[in-house]
Specification:
The chain is of the alpha+beta class. It has helices at 35-45, 50-58, 67-80, 93-101, 123-128, and strands spanning 4-6, 11-16, 19-24, 30-33, 84-86, 116-119. The protein has one domain (4-93, 111-132).
């Protein structure tokens, strides 16, 4: 099964409390990911498949009947925006097994739909950043 990771060649990202912000360095768009979306992204980053993410979250949340559709829909949005790409190489089994053992945000609470919000209000400013206008040698060379 294919595993996915954040495209680190195009995106920088940071987690703030339980939410994540991702910035696309190529087009200047940035994204906010809700707390449950961050949880899904973290599990995907650890090398889990979408089905494994659903299995883990189903063990920790009460609304298991709607959880697969919520996770799969969120995953589709991440791929559509180019945030996720197939993992370039296999993920070590140790990281997958440790992810499966990691306790999540509270046992048997309700899993809120993960939300990916896209912003373009700072697009021009982000694209003006001189780090985008350099040669292959890097900054400060042009």
């Amino acid at each position: 099964m294919t595993t996915y990771t954040i495209d680190k060649s195009r995106f920088v990202f940071e987690q703030f409390d339980k939410e994540m912000v991702l910035i696309n360095l190529e087009d200047g768009l940035y994204y906010n990911v809700s707390d449950t979306g961050t949880e899904v992204l973290q599990l995907l980053e650890q090398g889990l498949t979408v089905a494994e993410v659903v299995d883990i979250l189903s063990a920790h949340y009460s609304n298991t009947e709607e959880l697969p559709g919520l996770v799969e829909g969120f995953f589709a949005k991440l791929k559509e925006q180019g945030i996720l790409i197939p993992h370039p190489q296999g993920v070590p089994a140790s990281s997958v097994s440790s992810a499966k053992e990691t306790p999540r945000n509270g046992a048997m609470s309700h899993f809120a739909p993960p939300v990916l919000t896209r912003f373009d209000d700072m697009q021009e400013i982000l694209l003006l950043d001189p780090i985008h206008q350099v040669s292959a040698q890097g900054w400060p060379n042009r």
